[in-house]
Amino acid sequence: MPQQPPEYPQPPQYPQAPQYAQTPPPPPPSPSVHPHHIGTDHGRVHIRRKQRRTDATAIGSLLLHLPNFLASLFVVLLVSMLFGDAAIVLVLAWLAGGALVFHRPTESALARYLLHLRRPTPQELARLEPVWHEVTARAGVEGRAYELWVEDSDSLNAVAAAGHIVGVTRFAMDELPNGELAAVLAHELGHHVGGHAWSGLLGYWYALPGRLAWRALKAVSGLVFKASRAFGGVGFLITLLVVGSIALATIRSLYGLPLLVLAVPYALAAVSRRSELQADRHAAGLGFAPMLAAVLEKLHEEQERAALAAANGSVRLEGGMLSRLLSSHPDYHTRLHHLRPYLRPPR
After folding, report:
1. What does the alpha-carbon distance between residue 71 and residue 215 come to, in Å, rounded to a whole number?
2. Residues 177-199 pLDDT 10s
């Protein structure tokens, strides 16, 4: 019989070591997020039916421009008399010119040549559009109705002009966190939805002939007074009497309107300060009060540095009562005071 191979003992069976899942390495620490950073991923947006309104500030601005308008109308009528039968055409063309405030090509020319703005680059649009979309979504406003422009400036500033222009400086766009940039844009949007931008530009347009005539009159009067001094004190006195008589006759014939025009700049400045506070309130109502307060603090520090530099350079700054009355913006402390109700934590 064939021999069977010898049987060898089998090696002992040990239980298989359990397989543990390897723990993934911890993710790298994320960079610190600025406290004023906001998310810009918006879902469904509710667009309000009424996009704009004309608030009391805009109406007050239009009413205060009425004396300037009447003075300009008087100037246009005098100039139009030089054109004979075409006089009425000139007057009507000037009156219809106010509609150009809402004409898009005219607005673009205004932004480019008067406000020194430019169209944003694709990279700048990638920075601005999400923030602008967040602002307009919170406000329930159609953001595409407005045009974003950029000013090549190293200062912190923004502007709302005409019917659809929203401009911001390159510094504000590059240096501010997106929440503070949103607060700046929300402030300018407040000027548009309140009617401040178009009413101010409309008043400026209809006051322009009167302002040009006033500048021309001042220049001619200055030349006349300089020429009168060449004839001594008697000639200067006669010139003064003649000019004074003409001015008095003009004031009487226009029922004191020129005197009212002299007071209009102070009233318009007061209305402008009021409109700034209302635009601040609009931005704060959209949830940007802390961001806006931070922007105002930066503006205040920038102004203080400029004042200090001017003082070191022995440059005299106009800071008297009249200059404050003619200021178009409230001071920092006034604006912050009106923001305080929006900065308090909810109860």
Report:
1. 13
2. 999 999 999 999 999 999 999 99
